Amino acid sequence: MKLTLKSPAKSTLQPVVKEFFDKATWTLTYVVYDPDTRDALVIDPVWDYDPAASKMSQDSAAEVLNFIQAQNLQVHYILETHAHADHVSGSQVLKRNLPKAQIGIGARITDVQKVFKNVFNLAADFKTDGSQFDLLLEEGKPLHAGALTVETLYTPGHTPACGTYIIGDAVFTGDALFMPDYGTGRCDFPAGSADDLYSSVQKIYQLPDHYRVFVGHDYMPNGRELAFQSTIQEQKEQNIQLKSNTSREQFVSFRNARDKTLAAPRLLLPSVQVNIDAGHLPQPEDNGTKYLKIPIKE
C-alpha cells in the first residue's frame, strides 16, 4: 500500500524544529514553527516529577515557554504522540501559559484509557471517550495550525494509541522509532504489540527518503552524544532492529524476546494515570492533597 500525503505549503516544507532534552527521562520535546508566520506547535512536553519526594516542578516547561516567548511564536497546539509511560506530560503546564493552545492526541487514546481505568481502578466517572483532550486526531484528516499542516499516521505497537506526526518534511515518531543505533520502542505494555509496530514502521518507511525523522527519546547508547534526528533513508538502511528488509518474523521474535528482559520505566505508574487524563493531576481529596494510585503486586 502506497501512502499518499498532500504536498505541504511552501512555507512549511522545512519547518524549523527546536529540540529540548530532559536527561532525567531521556525525553525529547519539540517546538515546531514556521519562521515566516511564527505559527507553532509543541510536541511531547515534560512536567518534571521527583518520585522520591513526590514533587512536581516546571523547569522543563519553563525552558520551552521561554523559547516560545523569545521567538515570538504563536502556539496553536500541544500534541502528544501517545500516553507516555516514562514521563509526566507537561501539556497542562504549557496550556496555562498559552491559553490559545489546544491539547491533541490520536483518537485511539480511548483504547488506552479503557485499559488503564481497570489497571488503576479509577473512579467510575473517569471518562474513556478521550474528552479530557481538546481534540482527537484521526489519520487522513489534516490539522491546520496557521501556516503549518499536521498529518497524523496511526502507528500502534508501543501502545495501541501511538501516532506519528508529519509536518512538512519533519516526521515525529514518538516511541515507534528511535535513532538507528538504538532501534524501536518496546511493545510489552498492556495492549502493546510487536506485530502492530512492525506494520506501523512499514507505513513510516513509505514516506520520502529525505524526510527528517525526530525521535521521542534518546538513550545515548555506548556513551555517545545526544542525537535525535535522522532521515527515513537512514532508518531504513541502518536501524539496528528494523531495517526495510527485516522480516516481520525476525522483528517480532527479537522484540518480544528483548522486551522480556526490560525493567518497567521508573515513572511508569505516575506517568500513565496522569497522561491518560490529558496531563491533569488528580483532584485534591478532603484534606487538600492530591494523590496518585500505586497498585501493589505480591
Automatic annotation (TrEMBL):
Q: Does the keyword Disulfide bond apply?
A: no
Listed GO molecular functions?
metal ion binding; sulfur dioxygenase activity
Entry-linked SMART domains: Lactamase_B (SM00849)
The GO annotation for biological process reads: glutathione metabolic process; hydrogen sulfide metabolic process
Provide this UniProt record's keywords sorted from A to Z.
Answer: Metal-binding
Q: Where is the Metallo-beta-lactamase domain?
A: 26-217
Domain of life per record: Bacteria
Q: Can you name this protein? A: Metallo-beta-lactamase superfamily protein
Source organism (scientific name) = Pseudobdellovibrio exovorus JSS
Q: Show the taxonomic lineage.
A: Bacteria, Pseudomonadati, Bdellovibrionota, Bdellovibrionia, Bdellovibrionales
